[in-house]
Amino acid sequence: MNHIVTVQDAVTAFAPWMEPTDAELDAIEQEMPVILADVDLLDAQIVTQDRAPSELDERRIRRARRRALAARVALVNRAAGMSLPGGAA
After folding, report:
1. pTM passes above 0.85
2. Residue-wise DSSP of 13-77
3. Deepest in the core among 13, 18, 19, 40, taking most CB within 10 A?
4. pLDDT, tens digit, for every residue of 11-69?
5. Rounded to 5 degrees, what angle do the CA atoms 46, 24, 72 make?
6. C-alpha angle 1/7/14, rounded to 5°?
């Protein structure tokens, strides 16, 4: 006779103890501008996948790249500002 057992991880995949911590949620919140800028860049690139990009498409992609880069720079500067001793930024 074969016993049927459940896989514990699959059964408790959404258990309360598996929720993100406050620190993880704060980290996601800090990175949200970068995530949104990357999504905008991907949207601009996806639009041009099945056709040759027009001049307007190229401008949209360039603007999205600049926004994504600016968001990353702001995130790095914010992180560096928090880690400097003595409050110097």
Report:
1. no
2. TT-GGGSPPHHHHHHHHHHHHHHHHHHHHHHHHHHTTTS---HHHHHHHHHHHHHHHHHHHHHHH
3. 40
4. 555 666 778 889 999 999 999 999 999 999 999 999 999 999 999 999 999 999 999 99
5. 45
6. 150
